[in-house]
TrEMBL record:
<keyword id="KW-0479">Metal-binding</keyword>
<dbReference type="GO" id="GO:0070903">
    <property type="term" value="P:mitochondrial tRNA thio-modification"/>
</dbReference>
<keyword id="KW-1025">Mitosome</keyword>
<dbReference type="GO" id="GO:0005634">
    <property type="term" value="C:nucleus"/>
</dbReference>
<dbReference type="GO" id="GO:0005739">
    <property type="term" value="C:mitochondrion"/>
</dbReference>
<dbReference type="GO" id="GO:0002143">
    <property type="term" value="P:tRNA wobble position uridine thiolation"/>
</dbReference>
<dbReference type="InterPro" id="IPR015422">
    <property type="entry name" value="PyrdxlP-dep_Trfase_small"/>
</dbReference>
<dbReference type="InterPro" id="IPR015421">
    <property type="entry name" value="PyrdxlP-dep_Trfase_major"/>
</dbReference>
<dbReference type="GO" id="GO:0044571">
    <property type="term" value="P:[2Fe-2S] cluster assembly"/>
</dbReference>
<keyword id="KW-0808">Transferase</keyword>
<feature type="domain" description="Aminotransferase class V">
    <location>
        <begin position="77"/>
        <end position="438"/>
    </location>
</feature>
<dbReference type="GO" id="GO:0032047">
    <property type="term" value="C:mitosome"/>
</dbReference>
<keyword id="KW-0408">Iron</keyword>
<dbReference type="GO" id="GO:0030170">
    <property type="term" value="F:pyridoxal phosphate binding"/>
</dbReference>
<dbReference type="GO" id="GO:0031071">
    <property type="term" value="F:cysteine desulfurase activity"/>
</dbReference>
<dbReference type="GO" id="GO:1990221">
    <property type="term" value="C:L-cysteine desulfurase complex"/>
</dbReference>
<dbReference type="Pfam" id="PF00266">
    <property type="entry name" value="Aminotran_5"/>
</dbReference>
Amino acid sequence: MSLLYRLGRPTVQAVNALRPRCASTVLRDCSRRSVVDSRKTLVTATQRVQAAATAQETPIEASGFEESLVKRDGRPIYLDVQATAPMDPRVIDAMLPYMTQFYGNPHSRTHQYGWESEAGVEKGRQQVADLIGADPKEIIFTSGATESNNMSVKGVARFYKSKKNHIITTQTEHKCVLDSCRVLQEEGFDVTYLPVKENGLIDLQTLEEAIRPETALVSIMTVNNEIGVIQPIAEIGKICRAKKVFFHTDAAQAVGKIPLDVNAMNVDLMSISGHKIYGPKGIGALYVRRRPRVRLEPIMSGGGQERGLRSGTVPTPLVVGLGAACAIAKEEMNYDAARIRALSDRLINGITSQIEHVVRNGDPDASYPGCVNLSFAYVEGESLLMALKEIALSSGSACTSASLEPSYVLRALGADDDMAHSSIRFGIGRFTTEAEVDFVVDRVVKHVGRLREMSPLWEMVQEGIDLKSIQWAQH
Ligand SMILES: Cc1ncc(COP(=O)(O)O)c(C=O)c1O
Ligand code: FES
């Protein structure tokens, strides 16, 4: 059988040695898209990759790091787990029999192949439900969090359209929530985009005041994908329940990473994504509360699978993989959390103890430690990303990484454009090692230092000039 089977229960080291070849650099992700940068020149992602490859780099001193510890296959270190995470080999182990042996259609009721497959799907449903304190009947399988978010926002709004026409969300949601809201606005709905405070968190009183008798839904994400802040979900749930408004949360970056309980938190709809929790891509789930019952208009029409809410044959191997990923996350959440926090502290302390003018974006306490977003003043984020080509990083979300526009999330926090342009997101996950973090700290410190030495602004700062006092010539 496969190498995975021969390994038995993998250790972190074994898992790391086997790390799937999925490290997509931010630049490669968007190879077919072209974008207009803030200076209005057309830049294709391919050109940017070439620029990165040919970037003239002043050689930096040998680091003294054992290269073999951090470079397993000659590819960059993967520090972009918010974009996607490598699959846990135990997940692949669970999925394989459903691709080889148990390949029946889970909706076939007339023979054993169907029953076997159905049993796999129902086990997966139970495992997903167990992770968030739900009943398995409340779990609907989808293709990912994008679909779950579309279903929740558009589905609830459209179902209750005759009675209610107002939706509340925040300015820092994932694009798929924001764009679903824009579509609803075109259909005549009214949407409130709540601002966030400087620390990235919403103000609960502002939320409460925004709720009207005609509000159908509040949609607020649990963990932000760019800055890692954790919104006060239980408090938001309490407010929504008291006001009898449905509460949806996009928990794509939170499920399996922090403890969540849909009942304790009064969540009515919760979006889940497989590939953010070391499961397969192309699968996700939506928790839909049964009591009090949430109704939604389905987006997909067809065979009426998934309680009529999501027609289409349920992909058994993917569901089994998502279930296994949830079961592992539940089992190992405390272990992972402690490891990731230690690595995160190591990264932040390593960088901030050696370079000044580094700002951590987002509330340092109410945040998931595996998502560290830092702004390096007087350094252009894009240049730093290109210099750090030994590390797969992103300046924000993968979907918008082709754009050189500063992040709308950082802007919503009130960051000025310069700081928003100089930000980098470090994503630490289950398979990140200490040696990798040390390597990253070493490279970041060296390259930030080198880029600052080339910056006239940095020179002025060193000379004690207050940049804010300068009258720049206007052309
Ligand atoms: C917060 C958040 N919501 C939704 C998504 C979309 O998830 P999926 O790729 O499963 O559609 C992502 C992925 O980037 C995310 O980070
Ligand atoms: S993949 Fe995360 S923002 Fe699109």
